[in-house]
Amino acid sequence: MKKNEIISLAKLAMRISLYQFLILTIFSFAASAYNVKAQGALDKQVTLSAKNQNIKSIIDKIELLTSVKFVYSPKSIDALRKISVNANKQKLGDLLNDYLEPHDVGFKVVDDRILLYSISAAKENGLILPRPEMRRDGVITGTVTDGKGGPVVGASVQIKGTTTGATTDANGKFVIKKLEAGSYTIVVTYVGFISKEVVVDIRDENKTLDIALSEDNLQLEGVVVTGGGNPKTKLESSVALTSVSRKDIVNRAPLNSTDLLKAIPGLTVESTGGDGPGNVWVRGFPQAGGYIYLGIQEDGLPLLPTGFNTNPSVDQYYKTDLTIQNIEAIRGGNASIIQYNTPGAVVNNLSYVGADKQYGSFKFTTGFSQGLYRFDGNTGGKISDNVKYNIGGFYRTDKGVVDPGYSPANVGGQIKGNMTFGFKNNKGFIRLYGKYLNDVTQFLLTSYYPYDGTGKPTTYKNFDMVTQSMSPIDTKWAYTDPANSKTFNFTLEDGMHTKLGSGAAQFKYTFDNGWQINNNFRYQKTRTNTHYSAPGGIALRNAATQYYYVDGSMAPANSSDYVVTANSNGMVNRDEQIVNYLDLKKQVKNHAIFIGAGIHQYNRNDERYVFSTRTEYKENPRILQTTAASTALQGRTPVTKNTFIGDTRTLSVYGGDEIKISEKFRLDLGARLDNQNVKGKRPYYALNANGTPNISASATNTIAGYTDYDETETNWAVSLGANYKLSNTTSTFARLTRAYNAPNIGDYNASAYNAANIKERPVYLAEIGYKYAKNNLAIFASGSYSAIKNTSLAFNNIPTTNSGPQTLIAFGSTRTWSAEYEISYKVLNPLTLRWTGTIQDSRYTDYSASTRTNAALMAELGDRVYSFTGKRTERVPSLNTELSATYDVKKFNVFVAASYIGNRYTSPSNSYKLPAYVVMKAGAGYNFTKALSFRVWADNLTDARVLTEGDVRGDQFRDFSQVAPGSLMIGRTLLQRTFFGSLAYSF
After folding, report:
1. Domain of 686, in residue numbers
2. Same domain flag for 74 and 208
3. Which residues lie closer than 8 Å to 479 by C-beta, 6 or more apart?
4. Contact (Cβ atoms closer than 8 angstroms) between residue 591 and residue 610
5. Which residue has the higher pLDDT, 352 or 21?
6. Residue 217 phi/psi, 5° resolution?
7. Is there a domain that residue 329 lies in?
8. For a surface tag, which of 337, 523, 614, 752 has the fewest beta carbons within 10 Å of its beta carbon?
9. For the CA atoms of 693, 694, 696, 697, what is the dihedral angle to 10 degrees?
10. What is the CATH number of the domain that holds 365?
């Protein structure tokens, strides 16, 4: 532009003041400058949302966002007029053209300043000026494909640093036109794939690109939906989060809900209970089993309060099937803000919720080695433009990984669905959920094996604990409770039989002022009948004692026969839950604010009966009795009755703020306050001489009475996180957290309850991590510190000779240093490797137990204090890692995974070390058509034989240097090798 034209335009825009005269002088000197800085200013990207704001305030915001200086006369352009702007990463030049030109405001750039003027006034003065625009003459065309060479539809293809780009069509093709000669970086992104950057030079010819994307197995560029705040990608978040996609679930083909958790670093998972309850340790926190520090959610709401072991077991409240779209597992500090009493991790199972296009999957699965027949189905779509649905479930029957001597061992299924009613203004929806679960699972427990010190299961005569069951085949018995004349018909064949019904509703809406409300409600009712036989002692058969079977026939005897003492458990567990979370969030400038409140009402009414039995020591044994008489108890003697009658109400308030300090740096703070009230009836079994309840009396099969309890406590958690985005593909994060572990109804219900034993249990966590996703490589790595104080570590069911099973009350503290990692790398076009794992050192920092807390133990073991301070946490390996490979080429797919689990100790005394082992899983699939596929796979492919636990109740008191080889010991083992096949149809 000529110098005199700029001066004329500046005069027109400025006119009056000395300041404006000085600006005019600056423009005069800059008029002859080459216009490189000007174009750089126009190419700056702006993200700005402003509704009904005056032009001056909008220009002020643009100056703040871009550091570009505007020069103008407010009167000349009528800067107090109100306009609206909605720009997302838009070039500044395009923004000014789109939003200011329609309001008679033109612009010109000289050096690094932008002059604003009235277009109509310029025309009146003979100044007709074209828009500033780069010369564009090049074209980039190309195709974006997936790992199998198929087209990726809807991928974004952008020129890095600009808003220029295209979207791939139905054939994966794209075109970017009008490009100036030069060098460009093309960025290709698509949900579920790692972003890819390609550098291309345009000179005199056009360019054609073929770009193959790698699947984002770690989903680092996916959006996090679990928890408070605004959704963000994993690269932008300050949490340790693992996503398990639908494809991951298909490849891993989990035997049960617990088995799938093995894909998540930071968790130590034992699923050797078959389809029955599993055990999950989080970052080394001590526990006897169950899900003590891990919360399980379904579509954002907890299925059960966190903190229970075995009964109830949350893995029986949900089942993994085709209705699950993906899983998000948040580990560490932020979990304590998302769900109350959950300092370790939260696993959220997210269901399919319908779509504009009809879809569906149906699968038939058979287990070649266990007689499995299973049918899964799921389908969804839309009923109208605003109404979508999804419905699915499964049904199965099988003989069990280990044959219990009756069939089926596992039988049942579930049906679940949801329907979404979207508002016509596209600002929200109402979604209704429903689920009915009716499922029987076999609960595999410990067996006996000859001890040889290797930590591997050995056989005794013809009994092999890996492949054979010690559950008695005399499965049925009846018992009438003399206290209430109620008759129970128990049967081991009913296993853990869960019947669960739930209904839920979600309301989500975004108001015009930017506030978003999300209310999530569920009512759930569950009844679980639990039956299992647990061995507790073994001895050579006394030749002088004649035994009979329950039908009255004489049991044969050999001199080397053993008799097993076991407990038959019959439990009727009932619970009713109401849970509601109300969340509000809003973006206020650079703040993503969220606040919420919740209530979780959990009511329980359980009756639990334990019966002692004697059985043979062999596969599928018979029950032995000392008389030939046949009774309804079928050789079982009532030992104890216990009840859990109580209600837990938890009121919660929580909130936080994520502050976008800059485009690269985010800081977030979350806090939670939980008020827990537990009230109910605590059983006692005897009276003192003065007629008061004797709470120290051992449990029997007759409850003498109940005492009422009503306890309230308040706990809090706070977490501070930061994320720094080094680039579009790399970020680092850090987090500090103070959380808590609260007692549950089981603690308050104990007959020997003592308020002094319920101590505050703070949890402290710190972590720092690194995330990277570009081209063929994705990495997540973190280091963490975790510590818990004063946690209850009571030993239950300690065997004694004279007084039966006893409890030793103790408290302890631990700390864990750990490193977690997930690495995915596409080696070749069809081959992807994934390496995940945890390295950890978890030790007790303060842990001692005195026999003075239990008179029976003191009488048998003496006045002793057992100190485990400095010892490793039991059953937690120092290294737990998995290397898997996926090979996808055309219609063929292969998946192989090898897991290494390091050595563990069976008890806190560290007296018995179990060896490290490797277990393999493998599968192969073939797609006959796009819709029809076949798959075969195997678990424990190499048939590894190793113990996963020893005698968790007795090993801490045992000197294994004094145990003679061949002595029969309790243990549990890996499940034996199993083979499966499936035929699936998807559309």
Report:
1. 359-986
2. no
3. 487, 488, 490, 570, 609, 611, 632, 633, 636, 638
4. no
5. 352
6. -60, -30
7. no
8. 523
9. -110
10. 2.40.170.20
Residue 49 pLDDT > 90, yes or no? no
Give the number of other CB atoms < 10 A from CB of residue 454. 12
Residue 119 falls inside a structural domain: yes
Task: Flag whether pLDDT at 665 surpasses 70.
Answer: yes
| End-of-domain residue from the set 98, 124, 150 | 124
pLDDT at 311 over 90: no
Name beta bridge partners: 815.
Answer: 787, 843
Query: pLDDT > 70: what percent of the chain?
Result: 91
Is this model's pTM higher than 0.85 or not?
A: no
Task: Determine the pLDDT at residue 29.
Answer: 43
177 shares its domain with 61: no
- Tokens at residue 539, please? 């001895």
Residue 237 in any domain: the answer is no
Residues 555 and 529 in one domain: yes
Cβ neighbours, 10 Å, residue 890: 11
Q: Looking at the predicted structure, is the pLDDT value of residue 627 above 50?
A: yes
- Spatial separation of the C-alpha atoms in residues 588 and 720, rounded to whole Å: 20
Domain with residue 167: its CATH number is 2.60.40.1120
- How does pLDDT run across 54-101, given as a tens digit for each residue? 999 999 999 988 888 888 888 888 889 888 888 888 888 888 888 888
In whole angstroms, how far apart are CA 690 and each of 30, 700, 706, 939? Answer: 103, 21, 17, 61
Pairing state between β 410-422 and 428-441: antiparallel
**Does 41 lie in the same domain as 14?**
yes
C-beta of residue 602 within 8 angstroms of C-beta of residue 618: no
CA angle centred on 571, ends 623 and 295, rounded to 5°: 125
Which neighbouring-strand residues pair with 719? Answer: 670, 737
> Does residue 229 register a pLDDT over 70?
no
Question: 101-159, pLDDT tens digit by residue?
Answer: 888 888 887 767 888 888 888 777 766 555 544 444 578 888 998 867 788 888 889 88
Mean pLDDT of the region 870-889: 94
Confidence band, pLDDT 50/70/90 cuts, at residue 36: very low
**Contact predicate 463/618, CB 8 Å:** yes
Cis amide leading into 762 (omega within 30): no
Q: Is residue 593 predicted with pLDDT exceeding 70? A: yes
CA distances from 180 to 140, 183, 200, 205 (A): 11, 9, 12, 11
The 3-state secondary structure of 759-827, one letter per residue: CCCEEEEEEEEEEEEECCEEEEEEEEEEEEEEEECCEEEECCCCCCCEEECCEEEEEEEEEEEEEEEEC
The secondary element (H helix, E strand) that includes residue 154 is none
**Do 448 and 558 fall within a single domain?**
yes
- DSSP state, residue 214: P
Domain assignment of residue 933, yes or no: yes
Question: Do 880 and 762 share a structural domain?
Answer: yes
**Number of neighbouring beta carbons within 10 Å of residue 25:** 12
The string of pLDDT tens digits covering residues 421-480 is 999 998 999 999 999 999 999 999 999 999 999 999 999 998 999 999 999 999 999 999
Beta bridge partners of 923: 895, 937
CATH number reported for the structural domain that contains residue 11 in this entry: 3.55.50.30
DSSP-derived 3-state class of residue 56: helix
**Which stretches within 208-267 are classed as H helix?**
246-252
Q: Verify that 451 and 522 share a domain, yes or no.
A: yes
Nearest to 899 by CA among 867, 942, 932, 928: 942
Q: What's the CA dihedral at 194, 199, 205, 206 to 10 degrees?
A: 20
Three-state helix/strand/coil letters over 546-563? CCECCCCCECCCCCCCEE
> Does residue 810 surpass a pLDDT of 60?
yes
CA-atom Rg of the chain in angstroms: 34
Q: Look at the block and give the residue holding tokens 């979350």.
A: 670
The whole-angstrom separation of Cα 27 and Cα 227 is 53
Count of other CB atoms within 10 angstroms of residue 864:
12
Domain boundary among 89, 124, 159: 124
Together in a domain, 701 and 794: yes
Return the half-sphere exposure (C-beta side, CA atoms, 13 A cut-off) of residue 813: 15
